[in-house]
Amino acid sequence: MKTKVLIVDDSALIRSVMKEIINSQPDMEVVGQAPDPIIARDLIKQTNPDVLTLDVEMPKMDGLDFLEKLMRLRPMPVVMVSSLTERGSEITLRALELGAVDFVTKPKMSIQSGMLEYTELITDKIRAASRARIKARQVAPADAQKGPGAVLPQVRNPLTSSEKLIIIGASTGGTEAIKEFLMQMPSDCPGILITQHMPAGFTKSFAQRLDNLCKIGVKESEGGERILPGHAYLAPGHSHLQLVRSGANYMTQLDQGPPVNRHRPSVDVLFNSAAIHAGKNAVGVILTGMGKDGAQGMLEMKKAGAYNFAQDEASCVVFGMPREAIAVGAAHEVGALQELPGMVMNHLATNSSRALRV
């Protein structure tokens, strides 16, 4: 049975190209097109689509207002179609908070040729969205400031070694999962490295948003940073993030090598570097995402002595990457997203207590 897609975009050209891309796939079809949210509202009732693609900025009704009403009244998988601008990235990140599954950036080149080159990316995201678990979300205010975090409980940091590191990988649905995880981290938690599948131009805004919400400091990695407790370093959208060692210090390193598992940044690249340079000092966490990126790297971490956690199916938007990691035996424990921060910190506490007794 084909996935039914409704396209909402004020550009007739974009609608035409998207329709061509989607209808070229044997497992999906366009059931309607709308130039604005008002027409889209009626088409949703008429066509009952499985997935909606939604332009970020549109006339007659703000895209975010429409998305907020849609997710409240008729929750469904939504893929945002975004322009790669500072304003566009802020709106897109807010759309993900409101419940959009993922987003595609409009190419800067010739729209028609550019969008056709994006065929695989667009159709992969629609397929992932069609399998996504759509549930009501508690949305933090857009202007939330750094603080103790009223939305989520805080995890107390036990006495842990400064040698310890937390290594996180995520993809589809990961922006919200990472936010929920980091908001529970205490200000003196171990240093954290994160790879989230996200294009360049969005990772800096994402890191800044997290930095405003969390007790810990969060930044887009520039490469060459000393990894400090109470800080998280996010892979930039243009490079793989790697962990390296320089004397007694852990450092970040960026690599613009070819994509791995079709991704740059790749979770496997980060996890493999943690296996090599951190070994038993690393704790791996794999969160929601489509595909298998990170599964083999997490297995290498386990072989090197790391202790690993995977998000469970019920709390994932897309249970792809965690499922693959569990299937290859890379995860020691599986837990719901809300529970994972506490599970990680409790493991570190237990590990530290054993080390002190020895």
Automatic annotation (TrEMBL):
A single GO CC term for this protein reads: cytoplasm
Q: Which reaction does it catalyse?
A: L-glutaminyl-[protein] + H2O = L-glutamyl-[protein] + NH4(+); [protein]-L-glutamate 5-O-methyl ester + H2O = L-glutamyl-[protein] + methanol + H(+)
Chain positions found as 4-aspartylphosphate: D55
Which residue ranges does the record assign to the Response regulatory domain? 4-121
Named from the GO MF annotations, one term is: protein-glutamate methylesterase activity
Name the major location: cytoplasm
Q: Which domain of life is it from?
A: Bacteria
- Summarize the PTM comment: Phosphorylated by CheA. Phosphorylation of the N-terminal regulatory domain activates the methylesterase activity.
Instruction: Read off the SUPFAM superfamilies from this record.
Output: CheY-like, Methylesterase CheB, C-terminal domain
- Keyword Phosphoprotein in annotation: yes
Q: Which PROSITE patterns match?
A: CHEB, RESPONSE_REGULATORY
Entry's localization field: Cytoplasm
Q: Give the annotated active site.
A: S171, H197, D293
Q: Give the UniProt record's GO annotations in the biological process aspect.
A: chemotaxis
Would I find Cytoplasm among this entry's keywords?
yes
User: Residue limits of the CheB-type methylesterase domain?
Assistant: 158-351
Q: What keywords sit in the KW lines? A: Chemotaxis, Cytoplasm, Hydrolase, Phosphoprotein
Q: Which InterPro entries match?
A: CheB-like, CheB_C, CheY-like_superfamily, Sig_transdc_resp-reg_Me-estase, Sig_transdc_resp-reg_receiver
Q: Tell me which EC number(s) this protein carries.
A: 3.1.1.61, 3.5.1.44
Q: What family classification does the UniProt entry report for this protein?
A: Belongs to the CheB family.
What does it do?
Answer: Involved in chemotaxis. Part of a chemotaxis signal transduction system that modulates chemotaxis in response to various stimuli. Catalyzes the demethylation of specific methylglutamate residues introduced into the chemoreceptors (methyl-accepting chemotaxis proteins or MCP) by CheR. Also mediates the irreversible deamidation of specific glutamine residues to glutamic acid.
**In the UniProt entry, what is the domain comment?**
Contains a C-terminal catalytic domain, and an N-terminal region which modulates catalytic activity.
Q: What is this protein called?
A: Protein-glutamate methylesterase/protein-glutamine glutaminase
Q: Which gene encodes it?
A: cheB1
